């Protein structure tokens, strides 16, 4: 058997390296890891999916499943690292001792995990190029395919592998040096005059510069793959980057096709960067408009995530809008609103919090914050990042602008992503929580089989099953409202010489509740559904003694079970 892979969590893998690493996992533990491509990216790269489950305990499609993806946005590379860490955590701890070993073993024996470490391989490859560019998402030109003929294109102008800022001394500039720390630029105050001021723009190159006007071009690649999902899709004038129609982009279509064809997926999580928060639905509506039972489940599991990870758990609609009057739509709406599965986004990494900045707004801080915060961040850069998070300004002869200075915050390597030494620490926060989500999924189990003689060749057959999971078999009330989750379905398989006298070959039974308590023991009224986690399929058959009959039951999100009984 090949050696077990030892990944590097302090580096980002290029596509070819990532492909080899994933293949090495599949080769080293074939009973636990299967690797397949679910589609091709715009540029023709494979979108790799790992199926993690112990195949000796049944196929993945017969088990409740948890979906995890990362790196839908091009430069959010730590999201891919988080998926790799989750993969390594599950496989390396399987069969081990202690609580972690028991948890990983139980998970892979009874559940399936689908992992797509890099949903957007093209965008990631561009971010990792020798001369990088940092686009939002996919690399397909959109909404127009012609190249820019003028303006500033954001890219690495001096060839050092970083994209920083450019500053030019200008009496009309909007920035000035901090009075106590001249390495920092701070906003010019209202009424300021007579000082040294700077005009600041992203590092990049210009076409057809007239010596006066600089227009920063939008990226030619204007897609945002997270806005291309079917639920609440909106045109470009309402939400930029959404694409010409839902699932127009091959990366999103590959994900949607796979999830739709795998109704056993009851929960999903997507890794992004950055803000250091756990986000839960809904994106388009208030908590007041959410089904109360679903809100209760979300809060319970999200609070558990906050406790185990140290990240605050917040609502997208209430706490994470880019603008107070706008909503954000994306994966969360499709998976929860359309499919009724649970979904979370994890925004990895908070450099602000790392520097000791607390009690700030997740979004609006990037619009405006006090200079004291910049001082704390500069100190963090100096003391914890060897001065690399904030690059001191240095002269550069720009091919179009002439003499400029380059410097400022290295957003790719210290803001969108943690510095190399902190990446493993950051992604290691989540496997414990993710394991508990997966183990909370509904799980169908056989309770009992019964055969009772009703006459010389007439028999009553009963097949009892139960949901052993914390969550109900339908997972959410939204799934019931959307009619996407059937109750448990019983089937009987009759051999030759045995006929059905009472009942039907396929019985659609009730919805099965989970073992999550519906009220406390101090509640005045008892829970009426004491055995609502159980269901029974019953038939009357005619056949000879000794005949063997197959029984099966399936609940889409709780898996499948089977048994065989003998007429005796």
Structural class: alpha+beta
Strand content: 25-35%
Helix content: 10-25%
Number of strands: 24
Average predicted local confidence, pLDDT: 93
**Largest β sheet strand count, sense and barrel closure:** 8 strands, mixed
Strand order, largest beta sheet = 1-2-4-3-11-14-12-13
Count of discrete structural domains = 3
Q: What's the level 1 CATH class of the largest domain?
A: Alpha Beta
CA-based gyration radius: 28 Å
Just name the CATH architecture of the largest domain.
Answer: 3-Layer(aba) Sandwich
> At the fourth CATH level, what is the homologous superfamily of the largest domain?
Zn peptidases
CATH-defined topology of the largest domain: Aminopeptidase
- End-to-end separation: 46 Å
Low-confidence stretches: none
Shape: elongated
Q: What is the helix tally?
A: 14
Characterise the protein shown here:
It is a single chain. The protein has three domains: 15-127 and 223-349 and 419-439, 3-Layer(aba) Sandwich (Aminopeptidase); 151-219 and 369-411, no CATH class; 442-566, Immunoglobulins (Immunoglobulin-like). It has helices spanning 15-28, 78-93, 98-110, 121-127, 250-260, 292-309, 316-319, 331-338, 351-354, 371-384, 411-414, 420-427, 431-440, 477-481; strands at 33-40, 46-52, 65-70, 112-116, 151-154, 165-169, 175-177, 185-187, 198-202, 204-207, 265-273, 277-280, 313-315, 342-348, 390-398, 402-409, 444-453, 458-467, 489-493, 499-502, 506-508, 534-542, 548-555, 559-566. It is elongated and about 105 Å long. With 568 residues, the protein is an alpha+beta fold. The strands form six sheets. The chain has an eight-stranded mixed beta sheet with strand order 1-2-4-3-11-14-12-13, sandwiched between helices. It has a four-stranded antiparallel beta sheet with strand order 9-6-16-15. The model has no long low-confidence stretch (mean pLDDT 93). A hairpin with a 7-residue loop joins strand 7 (175-177) and strand 8.
């Amino acid at each position: 058997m090949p050696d077990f892979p030892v990944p590097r969590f302090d580096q980002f893998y290029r596509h070819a390296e990532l492909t080899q690493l994933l293949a090495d996992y599949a080769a080293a533990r074939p009973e636990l890891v299967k690797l397949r491509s679910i589609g091709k990216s715009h540029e023709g790269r494979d979108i790799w999916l790992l199926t993690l489950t112990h195949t000796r305990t049944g196929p993945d499609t017969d088990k409740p499943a948890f979906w995890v993806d990362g790196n839908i946005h091009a430069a959010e590379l730590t999201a891919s690292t988080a998926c790799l860490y989750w993969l390594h955590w599950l496989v390396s701890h399987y069969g081990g001792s202690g609580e972690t070993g028991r948890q990983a073993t139980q998970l892979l024996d009874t559940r399936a995990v689908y992992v797509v470490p890099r949903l957007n391989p093209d965008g990631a490859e561009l971010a990792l190029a020798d001369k990088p560019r940092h686009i939002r998402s996919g690399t397909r030109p959109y909404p127009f395919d012609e190249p820019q003929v003028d303006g500033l294109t954001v890219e690495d102008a001096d060839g050092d592998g970083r994209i920083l800022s450019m500053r030019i001394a200008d009496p009309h500039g909007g920035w000035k040096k901090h009075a106590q720390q001249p390495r920092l630029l701070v906003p010019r105050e209202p009424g300021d005059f007579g000082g040294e001021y700077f005009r600041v723009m992203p590092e990049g190159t210009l076409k057809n510069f007239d010596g006066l006007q600089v227009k920063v071009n939008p990226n030619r690649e204007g897609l945002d793959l997270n806005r291309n999902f079917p639920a609440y899709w909106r045109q470009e004038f309402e939400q930029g980057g959404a694409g010409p129609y839902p699932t127009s982009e091959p990366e999103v279509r590959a994900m949607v096709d796979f999830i739709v064809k795998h109704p056993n997926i009851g929960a999903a999580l997507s890794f992004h960067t950055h803000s250091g928060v756990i986000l839960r639905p809904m994106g388009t509506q208030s908590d007041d408009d959410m089904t109360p039972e679903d809100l209760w489940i979300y809060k319970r599991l999200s609070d558990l995530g906050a406790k185990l990870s140290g990240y605050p758990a917040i609502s997208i609609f209430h706490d994470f809008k880019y603008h107070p009057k706008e909503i954000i739509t994306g994966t969360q709406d499709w998976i929860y609103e359309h499919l009724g599965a649970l979904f979370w986004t994890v925004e990895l990494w908070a450099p602000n919090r790392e520097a000791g900045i607390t009690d700030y707004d997740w979004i609006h801080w990037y619009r405006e914050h006090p200079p004291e915060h910049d001082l704390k961040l500069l100190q963090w850069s100096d003391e914890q990042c060897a001065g690399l998070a904030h690059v001191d300004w240095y002269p550069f002869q720009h091919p179009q602008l002439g003499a400029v200075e380059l410097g400022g915050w290295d957003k790719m390597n210290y803001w969108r992503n943690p510095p190399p030494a902190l990446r493993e620490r950051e992604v290691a926060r989540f496997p414990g929580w993710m394991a508990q989500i997966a183990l909370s999924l509904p799980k169908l189990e056989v309770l009992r089989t019964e055969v009772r003689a009703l006459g010389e060749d007439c028999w009553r057959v009963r097949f009892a099953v139960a949901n052993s999971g914390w969550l109900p078999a339908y997972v959410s009330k939204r799934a019931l409202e959307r009619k996407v989750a059937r109750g448990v379905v019983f089937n009987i398989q009759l051999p030759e010489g045995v006929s059905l006298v009472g009942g039907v070959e396929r019985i659609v039974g009730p919805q099965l509740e989970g073992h999550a308590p519906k009220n406390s023991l101090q509640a005045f009224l008892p829970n009426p559904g004491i055995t609502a986690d159980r269901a029974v399929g019953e038939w009357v058959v005619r056949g000879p003694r000794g005949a063997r009959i197959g029984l099966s039951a399936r609940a889409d999100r709780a898996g499948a079970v089977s048994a065989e009984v003998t007429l005796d």
